[in-house]
């Protein structure tokens, strides 16, 4: 659906700050190369604690991080071959979460029926992804498509981020190109103009015209002279629950979002850039260059964003009744998608009479539309 890109005052309904996720999507939980065979790590996907381990064959498994015996955190255990062993009494669970051994149970005795929930897990783009929703939907849905990942012409810069804020606040920061003001000392973009806006039940596409001037202009290859003003179009697509954004064939960024809880969110993002260096040289220095760009460019932008995002969250918590005014229709469209996806999932859960879904219990007070004029 086409939406008018006109800036217009609208009141934000604060319940967007309290909604849960639609879990029927793939969520990123860790960088894949950091988890070696035989290692196990704890992760949280929207209030669900999960132990992710890589077995000795290199395969990934994800189990509910609570032993079915007495609830001890399984991520404190050890990996034996393809199984995860609980640290308390040594019960062993296979990748499906089934108890396959109890060290002190006489061999002739049958194992009890004890099972930890297992989650669909996969690795793609050096990210470990978990599907926390209905298992039977996992195969029909995929993580976002990132065509630049395998293309040697692009330099990939991984960007980790951790926010003490609800995912809606983080997502609004990405959609909100008007906050170039914040980054003015870094010579970011200026004179933003929203030119196109489209939305569906699960996505928002916004196109902005923005201007650049200064060292960033030169660095991104927008102009040979840093003192020239260059105007370009940025396309930002929020495809629930992740983002991709591109600057006219010059750069692309993918923001993979991990909502952890009501006031905590992580991102596993990748920035792709075409660097004007000979291929042989680029190949040789890619890892160092990527770290350098992260440290001296993105971290500075990100630190400024984190400060704003967390400030917004703290003020909201201090007074959840306070009303805020938004004038960017792209933000209102984004909020509608976030709340709409959550309500869609809640409705599906009610239809399935899925009374044991933790989200249904924890967030069932949140319903209704989110913005009024
Ligand atoms: S609590 Fe895990 S084996 Fe006993
Ligand atoms: Fe920013």
Features:
single chain, 373 residues, alpha+beta, Naphthalene 1,2-dioxygenase Alpha Subunit, Chain A, domain 1, Rieske Iron-sulfur Protein, 7-stranded antiparallel beta sheet, 4-stranded antiparallel beta sheet, 20 strands, 22% helix, disordered C terminus, binds FE2/S2 (inorganic) cluster, binds fe (ii) ion
Structural write-up:
There is one protein chain. The protein has 373 residues and is an alpha+beta fold. It has two domains: 1-25 and 144-373, Alpha-Beta Complex (Naphthalene 1,2-dioxygenase Alpha Subunit, Chain A, domain 1); 36-140, 3-layer Sandwich (Rieske Iron-sulfur Protein), CATH 2.102.10. It contains five helices and 20 strands. It has helices at residues 167-175, 215-219, 279-318, 329-351, 358-363, and strands spanning 10-12, 27-31, 40-45, 48-54, 60-64, 78-80, 83-85, 92-93, 99-101, 121-124, 127-130, 155-163, 189-199, 203-212, 230-239, 242-247, 251-261, 264-273, 324-326, 371-372. It has a seven-stranded antiparallel sheet with strand order 12-18-17-16-15-14-13. A four-stranded antiparallel sheet has the order 6-7-8-9, with no helix packed on it. The chain has a three-stranded antiparallel sheet with strand order 19-1-20, with helices on one face. Strand 3 and strand 4 form a beta hairpin. The two termini are 19 Å apart. The model is unreliable at 360-373 (pLDDT under 50). The structure holds FE2/S2 (inorganic) cluster and fe (ii) ion.
